[in-house]
Design a protein that fits this description.
Layout (H helix, E strand, L loop, with lengths): L2 H7 L4 H14 L22 H4 L3 E3 L9 E4 L13 E4 L12 E10 L12 E14 L4 E8 L8 E4 L25 E7 L5 E2 L4 E4 L12 E7 L37 E2 L8 E2 L1 H4 L8 E12 L4 E8 L3 E2 L3 E4 L1
Antiparallel strand pairs: 1-5, 2-3, 3-6, 4-5, 4-7, 5-6, 8-10, 8-17, 9-16, 10-15, 11-14, 11-17, 12-13, 14-15
Length: 326
Amino acid sequence: MSFQSFFKSVGLSAGAVLTLFAGSAAAQQPRATPSLVIEGPRDMRVAERNNLYCAGYVQTAPVNTDNRIVGAVEEQEQFYYSQNNFVYINAGAAKGVKPGDMFTVIRPRGTVNTKLSRKDDLGFYVQEVGALEVVRVKNDVSVARVKTSCNGLMLGDLIQPMQERMSPMFRQRPPLDLFSEPSGKAAGRVFMARDNQEMLGRDQIVYIDLGAEDNVQVGDYLTVFRPLGKGNLFVSDEDESIEARNSDYGSDKYKGGHFSNQAPRKSGDRARGRVVTTEKAKEDRPASLRKVVGEMIILNVRERTATAVIIRNAQEIHTGDWVEVQ
């Protein structure tokens, strides 16, 4: 059987055959260095569903506590309610509620106290747990169906009229510059993450101490970085070499000899100076050296804080890392 007959028998056209061979030839060419680039359709948003409406926020303004969930159809059997369960809210026709109205369900959790911010009073954390749609209105109460639940809804949770949020659109980004210079714009820190996580990656929600008072806006891109050499809890500069007094016990088997990799390094043109250590080697370098670890975009801005989503990272991001407006 000829090659042409074979490719016809498996359903490949002449154009597909040429493409196949072209791809094979291209695979043999040297590949470009991988870079951190977001790939996706042009009409995709950077945050959807619970990353948009259940992201939570930290604010200083008081919350209206008048309206809340006061009952549920199946309350005799459960404490937590989720999608498609029916609940009662203490807002009815007397308060202007109509069928089809949408409410956000929130749960204030308490004042944020952290050492990871230079600001004294960031406000209090508000957890967003889901959304309700009113299906039946009475005078003083309404029946609502749980439209979506990011956590279990509970009696006593507060409800607020839903305000539409628009997620920033996906935008093709240049490769993440791991050695970028500071922009000189507003800088702050990641002081907390949703669900109290501390090791973070793409698509996870964080809270930063930059807010309206810092002139940040929804859609602003932030570079995430930390001082060079920080971010590992298990490596100590003090353990890089053995004590000089132990060098006489060296051997090929147990190492630690006078000229082994574990022995102290000496400075000076004839090796008569002080012992060289990693910590001392850092003394003369600029204090501004930093390590870029990721990028995020702001979804929600409050008075002194903002909620953001991580869109790419070179390694894990930590609470306590710094952020800077690009």
